[in-house]
Amino acid sequence: MLFQVASLPSLLLLGLASGTTRAATTAAGTIRTVYKFQDTPYTAIENVGVRSNGDLILNTITAPKVYTLNPTASSPSPSLLYEFPGATSVLGIAQPSPDLFAVVVGNYSTATFQGIPGSFSVWTLDFTELPVKVNKVTSIPQAHALNGMATLPGSLTTVLVADSSLGAVFSVNIQDGAHKQVMQNEVFEPTSSFPLGINGIHTSGNTLFYTNSAAGTFGSIPIASDGTSAGSAKAIASAPSEDTYDDFALTSGRDAFVATHQTSLFEVDPDGTQRMVINSPQLNNPTSLVFANGINTACVVYVVTAGEAESNGTAAVSGGVYAVTVC
């Protein structure tokens, strides 16, 4: 992938820009490389899920591929789970019920940092029976740039999906494919200088938490049982200067650990207080993270990265998976 990144304020969703690397520091613990993809072909990991057995699910944005990885193996190595037809990227992931995952599939242009309208769909990966069952749930032709995904609280059949371009959220029933736009809000919208607005989304109780990469914000909004807004959005925190929020993971206490470009992981408290957990060149454009074994009180998170695409003669550096101690 060849494109210019100098005009961007900082790296955003795709993890495809390069920038100044700061010295590694840790506030809570250590970082360990679990696995790094080979640099050829260039592979950027966009999102990560965790199965009940602790295996990770890795979505790549540079190819329509999903991998599985046992992070505790003596020599972890990913296995290709599925390659989606007619697409270029796999993005958001959510787990509506144990070992049943939904993922976003579509086409992204790394030249424009925008999705291709009409190309997006939602699929399921069902690990409750082996071999895993892969099923297309529905296409969402009105979507422009589907991205982050979350479960709808209280439902085993409905997920919420963020559209970074429209500044909107869709609900999708993974059983019958029914879908509709349930929210559109100015706090989700991209800016005139960057097209990626609402990015990561997660739910806790009756609240949807979100990041807006273009605006550099982390916030929340109350939601009703059908995923529609039930109140006003609340700004919780802003990304530090020259940094950019991407996806995040929530604890049971609603603390958020946010993957922050270019090389950091931040913890954001419900009151907006934030601290740097780690800043390391190993976290080369972190895109998402998940708690080990899916336990949100664990002290280890697995952070996935996009690395850096080839640019101006600089060789590409693929993304990887890293275990970070956060407490």
Molecular structure report:
The chain has no helices and 27 strands. It is mostly beta strands. The protein has a single domain (26-325), classed as TolB, C-terminal domain (Neuraminidase, 6 Propeller). The chain has a 5-stranded antiparallel beta sheet, with no helix packed on it. A 4-stranded antiparallel beta sheet has the order 2-27-26-25, with no helix packed on it.
Number of strands: 27
Class by alpha and beta content: mainly beta
Oligomeric state of this protein: single chain
Which strand order does the major sheet show? 1-24-23-22-21
**What is the beta-strand fraction?**
over 45%
Shape: globular
CATH superfamily, by name, is TolB, C-terminal domain
Spatial gap, N to C terminus: 37 Å
N-to-C SSE string, H for helix and E for strand = EEEEEEEEEEEEEEEEEEEEEEEEEEE
Count of the separate structural domains: 1
Q: Main beta sheet: strand number and arrangement?
A: 5 strands, antiparallel
Reported CATH architecture: 6 Propeller
Specify Rg, calculated over alpha carbons: 18 Å
Annotation field: number of helices = 0
Which CATH top level class fits? Mainly Beta
Q: What's the pLDDT, averaged over the residues?
A: 91
Describe the structure concisely.
This protein is mainly β and 327 residues long. 0% of the residues lie in helices and 46% in strands.
Summarize the topology.
Blueprint (H helix, E strand, L loop, with lengths): L24 E2 L4 E6 L8 E6 L5 E5 L4 E5 L9 E5 L5 E9 L2 E7 L1 E2 L4 E2 L5 E6 L6 E7 L6 E6 L6 E6 L4 E6 L5 E6 L13 E7 L2 E6 L4 E6 L11 E5 L5 E7 L5 E6 L2 E5 L5 E6 L6 E6 L8 E6 L14 E6 L2
Antiparallel strand pairs: 1-24, 2-27, 3-4, 4-5, 5-6, 7-8, 8-11, 9-10, 11-12, 13-14, 14-15, 15-16, 17-18, 18-19, 19-20, 21-22, 22-23, 23-24, 25-26, 26-27
